[in-house]
């Protein structure tokens, strides 16, 4: 099963770094978050990727063009006709298709543009800025069992702030940290889709999260796989530092490889 990753946005909310590179190429523990996402899929046996590029797409293309060289020990012998010797092979078992889906194309339009690469197969779709410890094999099995057009991984991010009970005189009578379970379920990405989804995408202006998914819901063709484990997006510099700390301290739940 192919994995489609949306990696073409501007990443304006983390502009401290995205002005230099696309958000999926921002590094966590010396590797781009895109690499972390791909390693997660690869762990469960999904090794064929279609990456929807857009903003600074050359950065992603150059990364994969040099990937093998950067991951190996090499000797350059300039005295012997610039001979190159590879000492070890740490290449991934990946097939990666990089598609320029346009600079200002919306998420639905990006998905529509890679239809010819997916062909008539069921495929996985996720965003290039979030990691999760969901069991992707179980997610696929759930999708097959439900037999709907779209399955999304639903997560509960919870609230960022505590709850205060304040009396009229300003005295706080209760302070309670907001629990994850107190929040509603949202789309956490990590979706499984039948090819029928392409028929619900009109053009480059289509936002995938709007009409296509809303229409699936109206037709009772959208189901949620509830994930109670770890999930974290990287929208801000604060969230990047959080993810990086988890990697550095070897406490990153999504790293199973």
What key attributes describe this structure?
glucose-1-phosphate cytidylyltransferase activity, alpha/beta, 9 helices, two-stranded antiparallel sheet, eight-stranded mixed sheet, EC 2.7.7.33, 16 strands, Spore Coat Polysaccharide Biosynthesis Protein SpsA, Chain A, 25% strand, transferase, 257 residues
CATH topology: Spore Coat Polysaccharide Biosynthesis Protein SpsA, Chain A
The residue ranges in which pLDDT falls below 50 over 5 or more consecutive positions are: none
Which shape, going by the Cα principal axes? globular
Can you identify the CATH superfamily? Spore Coat Polysaccharide Biosynthesis Protein SpsA, Chain A
User: Number of helix segments?
Assistant: 9
* Structural class assignment: alpha/beta
